[in-house]
Each structure stands twice: as C-alpha cells, then as structure tokens.
C-alpha cells in the first residue's frame, strides 16, 4: 500500500494580497511560512512517518517548501522536481487580484470556483480542469508503480487549485463536483493511499492544519 502525502506550498505574498499566481506567477514565501514547515515536519515525525522520496512542482514557492520540509524532517530524501506538478495555468488571471478578475470575468471565476465542468471552455485562456488532471494524474500513477511496497510513503509538494482537482479526480469524484470539499490551506496535509498501484485511491486525511496552531484567515485557503 503506497501512501501519498500531499502538501500545499507555504503562504506567499500574493496569497496574502489575494492574487492569482497560477503556473506563470510566483511570489516570495511569507516569513511565517518557515515556522509552518517546522510544525508540519514535527507533526509527521510525531506520527513516525518515514518517506522514500519527495516530488515537487518546479515553481519556487513549492521547491522552497519541499527543501525546508526535508531539512526539518531530518531524513536524507531525494527531491525530484517534476514539471507536471506545477500549478494550474490560469492564463490572463495570473498576477491579478481576485477582485479584478471577478469584476472583469465574473462567469469564468464562478465556473472556476464552483462549476469545474463549465470551466472547460473559458474566456481567460486558462488550462482546463481536464487538461490539468490528465498531466498530473500520470505522474502520480508513475510514482505509485515505482513505489508499490506496503510501507512506501511519498511526499508531494504542489499547489492549491491543482492538488484539489487532482486528488478529487484520484478519488473518482465527477468533474462537476471537484470543488465540493472546498480548497486547500497553505502548508496543509492531505493523505491518500492506494493498494493497487494507483488504480484506486482512498482518502486517509483531508486538508489537515491542526499542527499550524493558529486561526486561519480567508487568504489561507483557495
């Protein structure tokens, strides 16, 4: 049984400002994110989780999260940078504030947040949910086949919108319902497991944040 530990990257300046980052945008992590990494690593150590490898999105906010988690875990882990784990390509939404995009493209924003099946044709030149899931699912299945043993644990560091869609798809959630449990919080942990090398997945933990030890605000989750 392979377990995947999915982590959304630490909170960034653009997260705080309420801006879409996407696959083309990036901004520095907030100073407080580094304490969050330590807290998550301690949570994993308290549960005696030993990892075989870390796979990270190539975007700097994810890579930095992966590196600091590895250091805090005190495990000599290989970190694989995987382009297919990058965030949603959000087209012309990237770099703009949520309010700006909502004002100019209200239908596209509503579809992106609440009706993923309708976002398949959008006006913002973004990647579709189907395209995103196809590219991300393939790397997860490859990893599941590479690490098929019962005690194989893999840490995946990626992004809020991308991971939400990917993980729901792995669980067999229909496209219209991908957002039914909302989004993911910065430095949150979600665990899925597979007993058949990726043919089926089961949910173990979803958007766990108790170890952060703080009250979460509206800019912490997307």
Précis, in short:
With 222 residues, this protein is α/β, with parallel strands linked by helices. The chain has seven helices and six strands.
Structural features, described:
There is one protein chain. With 222 residues, this protein is an alpha/beta fold. The chain has a single domain, classed as Phosphoglycerate mutase-like (Rossmann fold). The chain has 7 helices and 6 strands; from the N terminus they run βααβαβαααβαββ. The protein has helices at residues 13-17, 32-46, 60-73, 98-104, 106-114, 129-146, 160-170, and strands spanning 2-8, 53-56, 79-81, 153-158, 189-194, 202-208. A 6-stranded mixed sheet has the order 3-2-4-1-5-6. Helix 4 (98-104) crosses helix 5 (106-114). The chain is globular. The model has no long low-confidence stretch (mean pLDDT 96).
Features:
222 residues, alpha/beta, Rossmann fold, 7 helices, 15% strand
List the helices and strands and how they pair.
Elements lengths: L1 E7 L4 H5 L14 H15 L6 E4 L3 H14 L5 E3 L16 H7 L1 H9 L14 H18 L6 E6 L1 H11 L18 E6 L7 E7 L14
Helix pairs in contact: 2-3, 4-5, 6-7
Number of helices: 7
Output the structural class: alpha/beta
Level-1 CATH class name: Alpha Beta
Q: Mind summarizing the main beta sheet?
A: 6 strands, mixed
């Amino acid at each position: 049984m392979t377990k995947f530990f999915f982590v959304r990257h630490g909170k960034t300046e653009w997260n705080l400002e309420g801006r879409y980052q996407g696959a083309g945008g990036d901004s520095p992590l907030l100073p407080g994110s580094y304490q969050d990494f330590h807290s998550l690593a301690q949570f994993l150590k308290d549960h005696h989780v030993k990892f075989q490898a870390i796979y990270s999105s190539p975007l700097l906010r994810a890579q930095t999260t992966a590196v600091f988690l590895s250091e805090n875990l005190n495990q000599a882990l290989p970190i694989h940078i995987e382009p297919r784990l990058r965030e949603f390509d959000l087209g012309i939404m990237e770099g703009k504030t949520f309010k700006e995009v909502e004002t100019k493209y209200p239908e596209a924003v509503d579809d992106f947040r609440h009706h993923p099946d309708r976002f398949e044709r959008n006006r913002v030149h973004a990647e579709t949910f189907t395209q995103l899931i196809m590219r991300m699912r393939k790397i997860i299945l490859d990893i599941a086949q590479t690490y098929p043993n019962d005690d194989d644990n893999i840490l995946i560091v990626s992004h809020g919108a991308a991971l939400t869609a990917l993980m729901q798809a792995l669980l067999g959630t229909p496209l219209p319902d991908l957002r039914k449990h909302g989004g993911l919080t910065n430095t949150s942990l979600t665990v899925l497991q597979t007993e058949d090398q990726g043919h089926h997945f089961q949910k173990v933990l979803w958007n766990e944040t108790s170890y952060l030890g703080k009250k979460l605000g509206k800019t912490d989750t997307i």
